[in-house]
Design brief:
Belongs to the GreA/GreB family. GreB subfamily. The protein is α/β, with parallel strands linked by helices and 159 residues long. The protein is built from three helices and seven strands; from the N terminus they run E-H-H-E-E-E-E-H-E-E.
């Protein structure tokens, strides 16, 4: 992990916590029972349940460790409490237009919540970094994998 705070919305934090709780309280104990049962069947070298179970248990433990670190570093910010709504800050829903006047609606969320297909852009993504602090009418240039683009901020809303 890096030293940057892990900004996240309350809903995003709840989703991380729900995944952690589900893995820790439900999936992992069932898997441990399956591994114990498979180990009791004898030869472990050709026991598929045992081999797969151990592999899956390592995956779950790795994911639990990752989620625990992300939750510990999380700084929950509620966008509904944003006082300055005239600029683009964490949690803002921004309408931007490119040079061809194609508009897109994006919401700046935590990196763990990002989902480009739903218009959720991670706080540390290049586009989000370019839009930070922008006001309506501002032009922002961003370098994307497809090349450099310029966007105009058309609208800014908060939940």
């Amino acid at each position: 992990m890096n030293d940057r705070p892990n900004y996240i919305t309350p809903a995003g934090y709840a989703a991380l916590k729900a995944e952690y709780d589900q893995l820790f309280a439900e999936e992992r104990p069932k898997l441990v029972d399956t591994i114990a049962w498979a180990a009791g069947n004898g030869d472990r070298s050709e026991n598929g349940d045992y081999i797969y179970g151990r592999k899956r248990l390592r995956e779950i433990d790795r994911r639990l460790g990752f989620l625990a670190k992300r939750m510990k570093a999380a700084k929950v910010i509620d966008p509904t409490r944003q006082e300055d709504r005239s600029g683009v800050f964490f949690g803002a829903t921004v309408t931007i237009a490119d040079e061809d006047d194609h508009q897109r609606v994006l919401t700046l969320v935590g990196d763990d919540e990002a989902d480009a297909g739903k218009g959720l852009v991670g706080w540390n993504a290049p586009l989000a970094r370019a839009l930070r602090g922008a006001r309506i009418g501002d032009l922002r240039r961003v370098t994307l994998p497809a090349g450099e683009r310029e966007y105009e901020v058309v609208a800014i809303t908060y939940p």
